[in-house]
Design a protein that fits this description.
Two copies of one chain form a homodimer. Chain A is an alpha+beta fold. Chain A is built from 14 helices and 18 strands. The two termini of chain A are 17 Å apart. Chains A and B meet through helix 6, helix 7, helix 9 and helix 14 of A and helix 6, helix 7, helix 9 and helix 14 of B.
Chain lengths: 463, 463
């Protein structure tokens, strides 16, 4: 179906990309065969560090003509193999397209290339007293990757997800044409939203080469509240009560003592309190001390009335750093605790989280595997890790499949979806199909065909 | 291409829909030949007041099999002919599917049928101390229609548009299959967002039969600020300055004295002040008096420093009603001032509004037509009306075309889009094509084909 890259192809690609940005065959660092989680591995034939829309357009025009598969990669921090060149061909890496092109303070937008890292963007806008709210855990991910997975993060409770901050995308289509979707505008009802279709499409419909992102004025104050509970149920039962108030929390994270202990070990840093089995960690931000104080006091009271053992107000930079760096290290800490792991990133209705986590405990017991988890309690998005812990290949494969089957089927049963923010990529295709059914997969295939009739862009992903 | 409805078809439809909900040929009230603006007229062969997902599914299964065009209509408050059965066939009216099905206070959602009116929804959630933020001017529009046009409204500055509040849609596809897109979830990265594709698709991809909408806690206080200026430029130059502050205004509306005077005449009610040529009307809401006061005082000061003649604080219910009912009556007042009119609903970058409005004044002068306008200054969405004022058919047609050509081409030139919230429907197809170009229209056609290969659902709309 696809053409194997030959010497003529290489010659052409080398004619449009300088030698220091193109790597062929064995010259390619094996890091580019997989993403962060590493479950999906494949070697591209050519790796190109692209540098401009025009260059990408030329490459795609050629690849489209000669039926060569192309996959796009940012920082490689993905967890589902979306940026792995599973059909070989060309891997385009956007990490050198990392310029911040414009800050428009009238329209409150920033224009960036796709390879800008989330942490670079955050630092840049903060210096300018502005704020880019999406806050996924992985700060070294690229903005292109964040848009392609509709990344969520901690602040979704108050501020929403990446989708809510994408105003305009410049996109190279699979055939090399360059198009601009959306605009520097706040409302739009001008045909199907191709912009929203691009967001979360995991590099299968077009290649994002420029993004105009919406910013907000920077909140000047932020405080956190750490609330210990004697049981997970008590903690999670408080979440809908909190969300119903007018206190507008920025983040509501759930963490169990077990997970905190991993993190303490991993970071060799003490967490302020580990004497209780369950915790909620909340943030409140705004521009007025009084307002924030009113809000967190109200929530502290509400939690204590509803079973919290205490409520620790966290305002110094040092204590804030201590709790949030622990929270930020959960993934790495769990990863370090085992030889191999795989993850499940389901999202369920907010009021079903406790039920869902308990179900993962049942699975763990039933299959005899360790399944630590933590979660964005405020938005129903859980991160659940199945740890190999030295199991044989056969056992691991078997148990992983069983655990995933049970977890995704439970998520579907209670009105959830396969992925809240990590995406489907290559690893979760089977579960997406089971969750959405043949009709929706067929609609998605139809959309894919409209953009990419030869299916050369990031083939074999999503469905 | 399509089959003409015959007596066998009528017989079948009458076998699944009771006689009091189905009308054939001359039995159909001519109100159902057009929408609110009335520029597009066509008679359906059959009008059915549908009552359930199952009924719609049966009708679509039949229509798909026999190639009969189907158009869906809510309250008929559209302005671009999207709900007119331009190819005849079946018109499905959702006005009897107006049940509020569930209020989920844990997940802060309300589940409604598509025929629920915006004002009914607003009243229901308010009674329950909750808040559905989208606030289009036309309160008797249906929620189905609001979703289908991604309706915006006054509060978009702070709260966003309809798209931001749609969590889940139950949809009957053109072939009669019933599918659920999205879920009662806050994040989602599970394949292409078919949910977001449905929003704003103007009834061309599927029929919405149930919607789960996101709610917020109800703000307990709201005040308005009316700020007079000595020129439009001064007023509109303040808008980016206001948006940049941390005061989070809910609405920022621009109005000229001329438009206010129309409205005074139309309502026979006095506006608090008409001594200045230009006004900004702002709203601030929240749950704390102090916070709101801090915010509106800051903005009043900012406006006065930047050229405002004064700043009237509007807090009593009576005064609030007086200014906002004037604002709400603009469309009707302009409509009442002329024999016929057509509208343009462009959206432009926020900092280009003044330039754009001035351009409409140039067009008015050049063509010798009256072109009143008003606008959502905070989000760049303008409503511009071209008034016939007794022109002959030929003159009207000519001037209207010229005015539209100039306006849409200017919007495109400064980075705007054809429609901010009214949609494209039948009336604006040509301008959408000009604005987006052949490639994007082809992508949209491809998407349409994936959902509706026989093109029986709301044919001849959008492109």
């Amino acid at each position: 179906m696809y053409n194997i890259i030959n010497s003529t192809d290489i010659e052409y690609l080398k004619s449009i990309v300088p030698a220091d940005r193109i790597f062929v065959g064995n010259e390619i660092n094996p890091d580019y065969h997989h993403d962060e989680l590493g479950g999906t591995e494949a070697a591209p034939d050519v790796l190109i560090f692209v540098n401009s829309t025009e260059e990408i357009s030329k490459i795609m025009t050629y690849a489209y003509k000669y039926n060569i598969p192309v996959t796009v990669r940012g920082s490689g921090t993905g967890l589902v193999g979306a940026a792995v060149a599973v059909k070989g061909g060309i891997l385009l890496c956007t990490s050198k397209m990392n310029r911040i092109l414009e800050l428009d303070t009238d329209n409150l937008t920033v224009t960036v290339e796709p390879g800008v890292l989330l942490m670079e963007l955050a630092a840049f806008v903060e210096e300018n007293d502005l704020f880019y709210p999406p806050d996924p855990g992985e700060k070294s991910a690229t903005i292109g990757g964040n848009i392609s997975t509709n990344a969520g993060g901690m602040r979704a409770v108050r501020y929403g997800v990446t989708r809510d901050y994408v105003r305009e995308l410049t996109v190279v289509l699979p055939n090399g044409e360059v198009q601009v979707f959306g605009g520097k505008i706040v409302k739009n009802s001008s045909g199907y939203s191709l912009l929203n279709l691009m967001v979360g499409s995991e590099g299968t419909l077009g290649i994002i080469t420029k993004a105009v992102l919406r910013l907000l004025p920077k909140p000047t104050k932020s405080v956190s509240l750490l609330v210990p509970f004697d049981s997970m149920d008590d903690a999670l039962d408080c979440v809908p009560l909190i969300v119903k108030t007018d206190t507008n929390p920025t983040a509501i994270e759930y963490m169990s003592r077990d997970t905190i202990l991993f993190s303490e070990d991993y970071l060799s840093k003490k967490f302020p309190d580990t004497s209780h089995p369950a915790y909620l960690l909340l943030t409140f931000d705004g521009s007025s001390d009084d307002e924030i104080e009113k809000n967190y006091s109200k929530i502290a009271d509400l939690c204590i009335v509803n079973g919290a053992a205490d409520a620790f107000f966290i305002d110094t930079d040092e204590r804030k750093k201590s709790v949030w760096s622990a929270r930020g290290a959960f993934l790495e800490a769990i990863k370090a605790s085992t030889d191999e792991m795989d993850e499940c990133d389901v999202v369920v209705p907010r009021n079903r989280i406790a039920e869902y986590i308990k179900y993962t405990h049942i699975i763990a017991k039933e299959l005899g595997v360790r399944i630590p988890s933590f979660g964005h309690a405020g938005d129903g998005n859980l991160h659940i890790y199945i740890c190999r812990d030295g199991a044989t290949d056969k056992m691991w494969e078997e148990k992983l499949k069983k655990a995933f089957d049970m977890m995704y089927s439970k998520a579907h049963e209670i009105g959830g979806q396969v992925s809240g923010e990590h995406g489907i990529g290559f690893a979760k295709k089977g579960y997406l199909k089971e969750s959405l059914g043949d009709t929706q997969i067929a609609l998605m295939r139809g959309i894919k065909s409209a953009f990419d009739p030869k299916c050369i862009l990031n083939p074999d992903k999503l469905f």
